[in-house]
Amino acid sequence: MHRRFIQQKRFQSSSTKNLIPIRTSLKGAALLQQPVLNKGSAFSREEREVFQVDGHIPYDVHSLEKQMVRAYAQFKRQPSNILKHAFLASLRDQNQVLFYALVSNRLKEMLPVLYTPTVGEAVSQYSDLFRRPIGCFLSLPTAHSMKEQLQSHANAAFRYKYPPGMKNHFLDQDRPFDIVVVTDSEGILGIGDQGVGGISISTSKAALYVAGAGVDPNRILSVVLDVGTDNHALFANPLYMGYKHVRTRGVAYDHFVHQFMMNIKELFPGALVHFEDFGLNNAARLLETYKPVLPCFNDDIEGTGAVALAATMSAIGVTKSNLADQRIVVFGAGTAGMGIANQIRDAMVEIDGLTLEEANSKFWCIDKDGLLLKSNPKLQGSQHDYARDDEEVRDWNREIQEQPNLRLLDVVKAVKPTMLVGCSTNARAFNEEVIRTMAEHVERPIIFPMSNPTSLVEVDPADANEWTDGRALIATGSPFPPAKNPITGKDYFIAEANNALIYPGLGLGTIASRSSKMSKGMILAGVRALASVSPALEDPDAPLLPDLAGVRKVSLQVAAAVVKQAMEEGVANINIKKDDDAIIEHIKVGMWDPVYRPLEYEPEDSNGYSSK
Ligand SMILES: NC(=O)C1=CN([C@@H]2O[C@H](COP(=O)(O)OP(=O)(O)OC[C@H]3O[C@@H](n4cnc5c(N)ncnc54)[C@H](O)[C@@H]3O)[C@@H](O)[C@H]2O)C=CC1
Ligand SMILES: CC(=O)C(=O)O
Ligand SMILES: [Mg+2]
């Protein structure tokens, strides 16, 4: 049947794009089982007839809004967050538009379920809760066919074909994916090696690109590189679904990752690779290796650094000081901790004109073995930049005199930091004595306990607020309820300094500019854009960052700043005016919205669905 029941509208602006029909040859049960196209009860009368859906669903036609009411009620009836998470995963697997419409409309409530902290549980219980696979599972024993496996995902990917009038659209029609979110699952949040379950962190991060920045869900590939696991609990679980082998390391690991990166470069040229939750020994090393090779970004290093810098810029706006005035203690000198230090350090150089050495000297970094010192033979990567001279600490008091290493409290006493950042996974390490000592020396202590999930936070913001008499400027990695100011009785809203507030916009800006890389300058431009919308700019008692629930609005600003910077640096590959309005419109046109688009029947369609 060739009946066209919706006239195709010319693609003219961001508001008309949702009317462009999708063409498909799928019918009946096959159509209902395709989550990209399935509308469930929202298939119109005409669509039901044309696509032979009648008989497969109950008679009444429901709007997307009505479907959302039903889905939300079902969501609410799930007795725990992990079951709510599983419900959302099923919904995503049944009806992509309904899933994203629901999540986008109730982002505040859905984020802690879809993302941190619940995603930690979803990852660790992946094999027990498994229903249907979402994403791409690349396992070491089947590496010989990795290219075919990736190609098979590309073949199955849904592709929009836009009308010819859309010259400046940023999507590359010949490339199936714009963003590849990949984890090797060794350092999931703060819960470590999770084997194949890490796929859920990739799919959650991918979902936030969609809900948080309007990236087309059909143009993101979520990947887990399964190279085995050193997590003994997973080995003990007979239901574990991954490669049951000790984690592969060394040359074999590097070879596998290289094969993956080269396949991405060849099959999806120009796509942005988003590294997520790689282990400490690989994260920075891989980023450095592949930055010059293809557009890539490490969320835990660069995304976390970016959101922490934005929160810092906002905090120093309140304290009326400069970045260069800060004395910063970073507790947990791993992937995120060093990413944050590097980002703030580079901004001290760029914004305040310090030399690199001067900027490095503003940091005291502490890891498992205490304050990082130059004499420590175990220093690695960026830790070398921040290690202190042994001479400097020779006369410092130690709580335990015979203990050679300087602990957090020793450092706080000696350094009198203005800022304390936690990325240690060491729950409650910022205890009352540490916080009170810090607060003795600074008027507005800046305290960022950023470890996730919630259970691992270095200090509960309510405690930090109480112990500083409400003077602390706080930002956390996971969501927390407001803390009561013990003096004024007013609620202090806690900023969520999670990389999810900025990576969607950074990614959107990079793909919208069709950039050959995500440069330091592009990231800093995104940070400035985020900092410029901080509520604390207007009111010093307001949170340091905008609410994560407003991330979609933030993402547009961040992406626009990124595109502009990419154009200035000459790495963009688009032909539009370098004017704010033109850039915003360019980005909006390419953003995906969770709305049902009309369907048209196309019998000759070979892969089941396509769009014009
Ligand atoms: N808020 C956010 O956006 C983000 C938060 N994070 C969180 O930061 C934490 C760390 O993540 P990564 O840096 O990726 O892990 P990582 O494993 O690379 O780094 C953790 C570091 O903390 C150190 N550490 C462990 N126990 C310690 C202790 N008792 N005292 C001092 N240092 C200790 C480890 O030796 C390691 O160097 C996790 O909880 C993660 O969820 C990570 C990325 C983004
Ligand atoms: C937020 C994030 O990326 C992490 O905790 O690893
Ligand atoms: Mg992460």
UniProtKB/TrEMBL annotation:
Residues annotated as domain Malic enzyme NAD-binding: 301-567
GO biological process, one term: malate metabolic process
InterPro entries in the record: Aminoacid_DH-like_N_sf, Malic_N_dom, Malic_N_dom_sf, Malic_NAD-bd, Malic_OxRdtase, NAD(P)-bd_dom_sf
Gene Ontology CC: cytosol; mitochondrion
Catalytic-site annotation from UniProt: 115, 205
Cofactor dependence: Mn(2+); Mg(2+)
Xref: Gene3D superfamilies: Malic enzyme, N-terminal domain, NAD(P)-binding Rossmann-like Domain
Positions contributing to (S)-malate binding: 452, 498
Record-level Gene Ontology MF annotations: malate dehydrogenase (decarboxylating) (NAD+) activity; metal ion binding; NAD binding
Binding site for a divalent metal cation: 276-277, 300
Source domain of life: Eukaryota
Alphabetized UniProt keyword annotations: Metal-binding, NAD
Cofactor detail note: Divalent metal cations. Prefers magnesium or manganese.
Malic enzyme N-terminal domain: residues covered: 92-291
SMART domains documented for this protein: malic (SM01274), Malic_M (SM00919)
Similarity annotation: Belongs to the malic enzymes family.
Protein name stated in the entry: Malic enzyme
Source species of the chain: Wallemia hederae
Organism lineage string: Eukaryota, Fungi, Dikarya, Basidiomycota, Wallemiomycotina
